[in-house]
């Protein structure tokens, strides 16, 4: 085993939202200082040693930030490539550039996953309206158009219920490069949170079942009600992705459960909302696991000792937190965001529903 | 239920060590900002929004700190009374002054506990060597002399193995007001971590068994191997102390298990090293529990869902952390202290040893 970064070293985190905030606390638990890079509001900075408030095209600020950090990681995948060039010039950055490049673009990602012989929804690139007929022949109808880049929580998407709606749907995406995806007939969505260390070891948590509301994750429940064989499939599949990418860190892999097995919906090269349950259910949660990986510690084994349901508090739902906190086995996580807005993730609770089983 | 402090409010913490650090992270989890007051080095400041580095006799700094906080709490009990006067003039301070006054002075504490009809070791005040014969008649020999104030981790103590050593033992304590305590014939030391909310509700965690090395806590194991009736006694006894003090927050109560039942060793009006296991074993750990209490949230119920052994990493033992982290079910907590010194608490690990049972 190589030695981890020494205590007191500085971990840089790109992004100052709730994931950065929980990563910063995990970094502190391993004895590190955290330095946040975030142009906008940064709840993560409240628990960090330092905060560089600068834009991703401020080359000087990026270089100074990188020089101040012993390792850099991130809470979101849409980091501009020129910024990455500066950041990773002298300072190790995990997960790797390749993981970012693959997951920043839905077309690249689907092509990569298909190349690993993993099942994905039928897909086709759409540049202009002229591409639509061939694309829909590939995907079938109904289909969904998604911008190749910068989509999250259902944003940058347009549904096509019938072929003659396609051009209008494409127009709502305002000329952004787009991918058409066919629908997958699935019984449930699950996700598996997996990690790979600098030594190549892989660990995965039990898959959880995800329920969405208005395109935003509402709850994740572990264990997902699936047969043991599918749990194993999910974990092996995640392991294949991590290993092929020579990945270091935690990844979220969203999967559809279908009659024909698991179909990969998308991957996120970072800690993932559907892994928040690990804070209550595991000795080593996904945030500590990610920090262990990027700073060279051995990974935790991912063992789960409790059944948990994670519930997001979206927008005004955050007002329910004190009542939820009064219920048995409920752990509260609020993100310290100054303003409550509809659709905004304000916090979550983890409810322990029993011993692991 | 009264409403808790609103998200974004500021919690002041007196003391910037590892307890303050873990309290600061719990404060952040509830959506608050943390402001640390600490004259010396402050690992807690690495995870806090602000740090006032000033002395406890800097009245201006104390007043400015108090004005910037919506509520104030503390990680250690030896806060000078004049500082408390300034801090609590305009800002609520929990746990209360009375809890501090009782626990700052071993003589006051023992007198208080006896007044509740709780068993304590035989004790007597010792001001000068002239008091020794009467005191030792009260306590028996062997006995132990302890400074009434400012002792921790075995510091400020001198053993008396025979009566003719008493004067020399007293001299090593350099004239500090002292208490003589008799020895208690105990089979084990346990502690119970209990909390009381602003609404008067009390919750307690299962007692853990404590093992010391060189006067410093080495491990805490839950559950403590004691009969259910003693667990109940421990919890009820803690509840009596909290309620009598009109206490708000978490308290650590150290107890000796004897043939005649439980004897109270000491109380600490704060989160306690022997409660660190709750980070791995409970949905709501002692740090969140304390912050819930002082900010007006409902308490968690204290339920435990795993068996845990907490092991302190003292001085150079911190170098073992990466190897320990590689073992199953081990959660790491390092304190980010710049300098490793013998006897210094550098971190701890929580090891989940099985489901609760």
3D architecture notes:
Two copies of one chain form a homodimer. Chain A folds into three domains: 84 residues, Rossmann fold (3-Layer(aba) Sandwich); 61 residues, Dna Ligase, domain 1 (2-Layer Sandwich); 168 residues, ATP-grasp fold, B domain (D-amino Acid Aminotransferase, Chain A, domain 1). Helices cover 27% and strands 29% of the residues of chain A. The first copy, chain A, is built from eleven helices and 17 strands. In chain A, the strands form three sheets. In chain A, strands 9, 10, 11, 12, 13, 14, 15, 16 and 17 form a nine-stranded antiparallel beta sheet that branches. In chain A, strand 1, helix 1 and strand 2 form a beta-alpha-beta unit. Chains A and B meet through helix 1, helix 11, strand 16 and strand 17 of A and helix 1, helix 11, strand 16 and strand 17 of B.
Q: What does the secondary structure layout of this molecule look like, with pairings?
A:
The structure is a homodimer of 357-residue chains.
Chain A: E1 10-14, H1 18-29, E2 33-37, E3 50-52, H2 59-68, E4 71-74, H3 81-87, H4 97-104, H5 106-115, E5 123-126, H6 132-139, E6 143-147, E7 157-160, H7 166-172, E8 178-182, E9 188-196, E10 202-204, E11 208-213, E12 216-222, H8 228-244, E13 249-258, E14 261-268, H9 278-281, H10 286-295, E15 306-314, H11 321-325, E16 330-334, E17 345-355
Parallel strand pairs in A: 1-2, 1-4, 2-3
Antiparallel strand pairs in A: 5-8, 6-7, 6-8, 9-10, 9-11, 9-13, 11-12, 12-15, 13-14, 15-17, 16-17
Helix pairs in contact in A: 1-10, 4-5
